[in-house]
Design a protein that fits this description.
Elements: E1 10-13, E2 24-28, E3 32-37, E4 43-47, H1 48-54, E5 55-60
Antiparallel strand pairs: 1-2, 1-5, 2-3, 3-4
């Protein structure tokens, strides 16, 4: 699978969070990926392979400041 997401992007997952939101910000990338719910602030860490299966699409891409 081609990687089409990056740090600080806002993504939509296949299942919504129990708080009702389905917008997550990627806050850490490595072997594991940590995402944060944009509504309630809950953070979840999961292996990259699991994240790629559960991610539906990228909603917003982060601005690059090089």
């Amino acid at each position: 699978m081609e990687k089409n997401y990056d740090l600080n992007d806002i993504v939509e997952m296949k299942k919504p969070h129990p708080c009702g939101a389905n917008r997550w910000q990627i806050i850490r990338m490595g072997m594991d990926i940590r995402i944060k719910c944009t509504q309630c602030g809950h953070m979840v860490m999961m292996p990259r392979r699991e994240f790629e299966k559960k991610m539906k699409k990228v909603l917003e891409t982060a601005e690059k400041n090089d």
